[in-house]
Amino acid sequence: MNPTHGVCTNLPEACGLAASRQPQPMADGQGRCSGCGAALMVPAAVPAAAAPSPLRWLVPLLALLLAGAALAWWLTQRAPRATPAEPAAAAATGALATAASAALAAGSAPPPLPAGAAVPTIRLQGSNTVGAALAPALVRAFLAREGYTEIGAVPTGPEEQRLDARRPGDGARLRVELAAHGTATGFAALAGGQADIGMASRAVQPKELDATKALGDLSAEGSEYIIALDGVAVIVHPSNPLKQLTLAQLRELFAGRVTDWSALGAPAGAVHLHARDEKSGTWDTFRALVLDKQPLAAGAVRHEDSRELAAAVAADPLAIGFVGLPYADAAKTLALADGQGAALRPSRFTVATEDYALARRLYFYVARDAQPLARRLADFAVSEEGQRVVTPTGFVGQTPEADPGAAAAAADVPAEYRRLSAGAQRLAVNLRFRPGADRLDNKALRDVGRITRLLERGGASSRQLMLLGFSDDRGDRCTNVALSLQRARAVAAELSTYGVRPAVVQGYGPAAAVASNDTEAGRERNRRVEVWVLERGAAVPAVTPPAGCGRSRAAAPGASAAAAASAAVSTR
Question: Which parts pass through the membrane (predicted)?
Answer without folding.
Answer: 57-76, 88-107
